[in-house]
Amino acid sequence: MIRHAVEAALAAGLDPVIIVTGHDAAAVRDALDGATVRFVQNDDFAHGLSTSLRAGIGAVPGECEGAMVLLGDMPGIGPALIGRLRNAFAPGRAICVATAHGRRGHPVLWGRQFFAEMLELNG
After folding, report:
1. How many Å apart are CA 28 and CA 32, to the nearest integer?
2. Please, which residues bridge with residue 67 across strands?
């Protein structure tokens, strides 16, 4: 599943694609062998999802205006959806959220203005 998510992100033109690893990091790296991605290890993964979010947001290069949080276990998400979110993100739009049947879901594209607060999340 992680390979599918990464290939969808790359096909949609996301750059860089940052992979946060925690438990079983070696298996994730093996599954993504040859993919043009950057790995960030989260040694605190047992303390909750927020630790992975903080690790990923902390690794976003300064020139990036936002970051798309894309979970690795969602096989229904493809490059078209990721591309639509990326294209919707423009000046004046701070957050772009995928929806299905009128409900918010994933992925979510966050503007840089939220990074400081995201780096303070716990749990």
Report:
1. 6
2. 110
